[in-house]
Design a protein that fits this description.
The chain is of the alpha/beta class and 529 residues long. Helices cover 43% and strands 16% of the residues. The protein has 22 helices and 17 strands.
């Protein structure tokens, strides 16, 4: 956010979700008696050079780089190489979903990194800190010995999640702004916002998702008492809104009911939001959730064509979607969001049009329509390997839009044309058939966003693209502010030797954006080499 919108405590405000992973690990290792310093690369006050200077000043025993997916890998890879260039002795470790599922390949491609941590990081990190010089006994660790990659045995899946302390949120001097999920730059509130994880995993077999593989098909949950205790802790710290980043919160009705009862008994006012499946058997608890301050529900709807839902192995029906969305709104949930994908395998123009028609009829408050991508570790990736569309040896770290490699998908041009027409139709339908709901949402947007930004958001689908970006703009905006799903897919395919130039262009682009936002003279766009 622009510098003039800093929080009352002076913190930079960042639109997005906080890095709950490193915050959780920090509290664990501090409890064990270690010191820990946190950085979020989203913070403009701590660019890579600041992080590197701090590392060289502190000379820590270990530097951990945590990243979620394929699209974050280039950032982590470049930072690791920059750290190693100036510091030959510090131990470096990678962690996160992508690193876990590709540990040996990551270790070979990034020899600068000493360790790749697989799976849950809490106990693993404690064990590693005690065995940095001889990590042979550290379960779920990938490392190098005598020129060979060593994969230590997996550790058992930890089910006792209540044993870990609450995340260390206060050590990172950033305030996070509550916004719509993924890549839609819309502010939902300026309440002090953070995230929580009350459960881990999802057992459903959606072909585009790697969560079941990462969690070995298991779902693990914290106790209701532990969840409510953390909400009390957050409210005491001044947080007013929290997003539950569970993969599927709506799985166990008795647990949900106990959490709601605990919130109401404690008279907590903190707002919260969740993600869940539309086939949940806990829908009778939606009124209790709304009464306990659940203000947002997000559903993975994906398509308005049953054929495509079946192709994606969603194991849900259109009737279940309609029922869940209507039940959430009837219960009084303020914002109900729908995730949709376009550019799916075997999807026709008629299927896409059915998706937008279906979304129009649903009483959703907000929605996102993203191009489906495929990345290693998912069932769809395995299918593409068998079909010869991707290569395990050369493509494992890349993130492809399905429409670029799958001949059963519509072309990118067709997808964009149909999507633009569909969003226009959806907007018109919402204005005519859900005027009150639309007005309430717009009032929220205007309350927190500049008028020009809201108008642009509303008018963009009707304007069309008058001119394309230059090659320099495309490459540099891969990192900063292009359509993030599409840009992220392109960034993973940039050759290693080009990454430095791309990130230098990114740095200049970030500076240009910041100066423009603050009313200063814009810098010229720089052509990366």
């Amino acid at each position: 956010m622009p510098a003039k919108t800093r929080a009352a405590n002076g913190n930079v405000r960042v639109m997005g979700f906080p890095p709950i992973g490193i915050m959780s690990l920090s509290s664990v290792i501090k409890q064990a008696g270690h010191d820990c310093v946190l950085f979020d690369q989203a913070n403009p006050d701590t660019p890579n050079q600041v992080i590197i200077d701090r590392i060289n000043q502190e000379q820590p025993a270990l530097v951990g780089l945590s990243f979620l997916s394929t699209t974050s890998y280039p950032y982590a890879k470049m930072l690791a190489r920059e750290i190693r260039t100036t510091n030959q002795s510090v131990k470096l470790a990678f962690g996160g979903v992508f690193a876990s599922l590709n540990a040996s390949l990551v270790k070979l491609q990034c020899p600068e990194v000493d360790f790749v941590c697989r799976g849950d990081g809490e106990q693993l990190l404690l064990d590693l800190l005690e065995n940095l010089e001889n990590p042979q006994s550290v379960a779920s660790l990938t490392w190098m010995k005598d020129g060979q990659v060593v994969q230590n045995p997996n550790r058992p899946t930890e089910r006792q999640l209540d044993q870990w302390p609450f995340p260390d949120r206060e050590s990172l001097e950033l305030d996070y702004v509550e916004s719509m999920p993924l890549d839609v730059p819309v502010v939902l509130s300026m309440r002090r916002f953070t995230t929580m994880q009350t459960s881990r995993g999802c057992p459903w077999p959606c072909i585009f998702c790697d969560i079941p593989i990462f969690n070995e098909g298991k779902w693990r949950a914290r106790s209701p008492q532990h969840v409510v205790a953390e909400l009390k802790h957050l409210e005491a710290l001044g947080y007013e809104s929290v997003g539950f980043v569970d993969d599927h919160f709506l799985l166990q009705p008795k647990r949900i009911e106990a959490i709601c009862n605990g919130i109401m008994e404690a008279k907590l006012s903190i707002r919260w939001g969740i993600e869940g499946r539309v086939d949940s058997v806990a829908q009778h608890l939606f009124p209790a959730m709304a009464k306990a301050n659940c203000g947002a529900m997000m559903f993975g709807i994906e398509s308005g064509s049953q054929k495509i839902l079946d192709r994606l192995k969603k194991e849900q029906t259109l009737d279940q979607v309609t029922t869940a969305v209507k039940n959430a709104k009837k219960a009084g949930v303020e914002i109900v969001h729908g995730f949709f994908t376009v550019g799916n395998p075997d999807e026709t123009i008629e299927d896409m049009e059915a998706t937008f028609n279906f979304a129009s009829r649903l009483p959703l408050d907000t929605f996102g329509f993203n191009r489906l991508c495929v990345y290693r570790g998912t069932p769809l990736w395995q299918e593409y390997v068998k079909r010869g569309l991707v290569n395990e040896t050369t493509d494992w770290y890349k993130y492809f839009k399905c429409s670029e490699i799958d001949p059963t998908c519509l072309s990118g041009e067709t997808i964009n044309r149909v999507r633009q027409a569909g969003i226009k139709k959806l907007f018109r339908y919402k204005l005519l058939h859900y005027p009150r709901q639309t007005f309430q949402l717009l009032r929220r947007f205007f309350r927190y966003m500049p008028i020009r930004d809201v108008l642009y958001l509303l008018l963009k689908p009707f304007m069309g693209q008058k001119k394309g970006a230059t090659k320099a703009e495309v490459v540099s905006r891969l990192v900063e502010h292009a359509d993030m799903k599409d840009a992220a897919a392109q960034l993973t395919q940039v050759a290693d030797e080009m990454l430095h130039n791309v990130f230098e262009a990114s740095r200049l682009e970030r500076l240009r954006i910041q100066q423009a936002a603050e009313g200063q003279r814009e810098l010229p766009m720089v052509q990366p080499r």
